[in-house]
Amino acid sequence: MENSRRPSLAGRTVVVTGGTRGVGAGIARAFVDAGADVVTCARRPADTPLDGCRFVSVDLRDQSAVRDFFAALPRLDVLVNNAGGTPHRLLTDVDAERHARVVELNLVAPLTASLAAYEHLAQAKGCVVMIGSVSGSRPSPGSAAYGAAKAGLESLARSMAVEWAPDVRVNTLVVGMVRTELSHLHYGGQDGIAAVSRTVPLGRLAEPSDVGAAAVFLASDAASYISGASLLVHGGGERPAFLDAATAHKEG
């Protein structure tokens, strides 16, 4: 897309939680390219600093620290709740407390950040973009707590959109599989990534920039009448398994 056709967010301040690598870094870069003043926050800085971004160290599970971080900002127009994730864990592999920490990071932390940012966002007539997951709408063996948290995040966003209207818009990006520097942990090596890519109708995993472009759109004036929505960024989803298992309607 030509630069002249990209949404402009010049003069707006954007916070991207967990915006130091992977999807978060892609989102932060997209907002920088759109002309925004971007602040990223996480426990640790990026190995390679992101040009055009200011980093602040914040443990997003520390509610007091989160409130202090947002209170110190002079203004805020857009909050992208991206921080999250989980290792592969079957439910019976760890105790409930470990699963609760996954829910805390992926659901409670975005709620904490959104509440801390509310006054700034309401004053700016701004918006919140939640980074959800297809794991919240399908079975997620090995990441059940994560999937449950992402389902809750999408529900939270819809309720926030009603409670905070008309001052603050709230939407969710429901993200599918993304190719990042950690993809091998989820899908294996290059052969595994290629095989998984073939299960996506568009034939590839998303790039972080794909998610970033969608986030910029939801934050832009082009989406000014969109709130309480869930935008699927998953390349067409997943081909139903029964189509490959069935013996009917096979050519040859």
Describe this structure in words.
By secondary structure, this protein is of the alpha/beta class. It is 40% helix and 15% strand. The chain has 8 helices and 7 strands, in the order E-H-E-E-H-E-H-E-H-E-H-H-H-E-H. The chain has a 7-stranded parallel β-sheet with strand order 3-2-1-4-5-6-7, with helices on both faces. It starts with 12 loop residues before the first strand and ends in a 7-residue tail after the last helix.
Helices and strands: which structural class?
alpha/beta
- Residue share in helices? 25-40%
Backbone CA Rg: 18 Å
Order of helices and strands: EHEEHEHEHEHHHEH
Number of DSSP-assigned strands: 7
Outline the low-pLDDT stretches: none
For the termini, the CA-CA separation is 41 Å
| Rounded average pLDDT | 93
Outline the secondary-structure elements.
Layout: E1 13-17, H1 22-33, E2 37-42, E3 53-57, H2 63-71, E4 78-81, H3 96-124, E5 127-133, H4 144-163, E6 169-175, H5 183-187, H6 190-197, H7 208-219, E7 230-233, H8 241-245
Parallel strand pairs: 1-2, 1-4, 2-3, 4-5, 5-6, 6-7
Helix pairs in contact: 1-7, 2-3, 3-4
Short synopsis of the structure:
This protein has 252 residues and is an alpha/beta fold. It has helices at residues 22-33, 63-71, 96-124, 144-163, 183-187, 190-197, 208-219, 241-245, and strands at residues 13-17, 37-42, 53-57, 78-81, 127-133, 169-175, 230-233. A seven-stranded parallel sheet has the order 3-2-1-4-5-6-7, with helices on both faces.
